[in-house]
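Issue: ligand-bound run for cytidine-5'-triphosphate - logging full I/O for the record.

Environment: standard queue, default settings, no custom constraints.

Inputs:
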Amino acid sequence: MSGPPGDLVARLRALPGMSLLLPALDGLAPAHLVGGAVRDLLRGERSVDLDLCTEHDAHELAGALAERLGGTDRRHERFATATVSARDLEIDVARTRRERYPRPGALPEVEPAPLAEDLGRRDFTVNAMALGLSGEELGRLRDPLGGSEDLSAARIRVLHERSFLDDPTRLLRAVRYEVRLGARMDAETERLVREAVNARALDTVSGPRVRDELLDLLAEAEVPDAVARLDELGLDRALHPALEADASLAAGAALAALETGADRVLAVLAALVSRSPEQLRPWIDRLGLRAAVRDRVMRAARSGPALTEALAVERSPSQLHELLRGEPAEALALALALGAPAPPVLRYVADLREVRLEVTGAELIDAGVPPSPALGRALEETLRRKLDGEVSGHEEELRLALELAGGAQR
Ligand code: CTP
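Outputs:
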C-alpha cells in the first residue's frame, strides 16, 4: 500500500474537532473515519458528522475518548455503537460489523467483522471508504470498492444486487446523493432501483424510517431536481399510489417558502400531498411526524388550492387577514406555488400577519366592561378597523373598543 497522500492528512487535520480528536486517539484502539465524512473530505468539503469505526470494542473506545476529552459517552447496545459528546463535538463510534437482514426492509442483525467487510455492507461506493485516524494508518484511505473513482466520476453505485431490497430506504438515499453530489446512478444501479420499485420494496419499511430519509431528501438545496427524479424513477408512486411528485410545484413551494417564512421542507411535502390530501392522509399518519407538524402539512395541503382561488378576489386588508390568519405559512407558500397572486399574500406576510391590538381585554374589564362574548367581539372589530387603517394607537383603540363593547351591552 502506498503512503498517505500529504494533502489528505492536512485536510483531515483541518476538520473541525480534529485538533482535539487526533491526540485523544493516540495509543487507543485504532480507529477510522468512515462514511459521509470521508466522502466529503475527498470532495474538499467539511462534514459536521464524525462517524468513527474500530475493529475493537467501540464502547471501550468511546469511554476512553470521553474521558480524555472531558466529555460524556452514551452507549447504544443494539449495534454496539456509542456517541461521545465533548465540548461542541459529537462523535459516533461503531464497531466494524457485518449485517444480515432477517427480512427485507427490517433493521439488520449485526456481528463484529473486519473493516473491509464493514465497508462492504454499506449503501454506495462513495460512502464505503475509511480514513485512518491513528498510528501508521493516519490519513491512509481504505477504498476497496472504488469509491473515490466513483466520486470523481460523479457516479452513485450500489455494492451488490440486493442492496435496495435489504434496505429500501437506500432508494431515497440514492436520489439524495445524486442531487447533493451532482451525480448520477450508473445504469446497473438505476436498473436495481426500478426493480425494487416494481417489487414494492418500500412497502416493507416502517413509516418513521421513510420519514427520516424523505425529509432529508426534501431538505436538499436542489429539491426540484430531487422531486423530478422521484417522479422519473416512480418512487413517488412507490411511496403511495396517490403521491405525485411535481417538480415545478415543488420548486414553486420551495421558493415561496422563503417569501412567506414557511418551513421549506414542509412546504414541499405539502405540495406533494396537495393533489390528493384525503387519500394521502393515512400515509402521512404512518410517517409518525410530530402531531403539530403533521397538522401543518395537512392543513397546508388542503388549504393551498382553495386559497389560490379565494385570493383571486380582491380584498380589504381586514378581509385578507380574516382569510389567512388561521393558515400555516406553508399554506401560503403552496398557494403562491399554485399561482395565487403574490401581492396580497406578500402584503399579508409583510404588513398584516403580525398586527396586534395595543389595547387588551384586561384593560376593558378594568374600565368596567364585564367579561363576555361581546367584549371579544368588540376587540375583533377594533382589530378589523385597525387593519383597514381606521384607528391607530392605544388611545384610539381603547376608545373604540369601549364604545363597541358598551354598544354591544345595550
Ligand atoms: N449507511 C448505509 N445504509 C443506510 C444508511 C447509512 O450503508 N441505509 C452507511 C453509509 O456508509 C453512510 C453511513 O452509514 O455513509 C452513515 O449514514 P448517514 O449518517 O445517514 O450518512 P452520512 O453519509 O454520514 O451523512 P450524509 O449523507 O447526511 O452526509
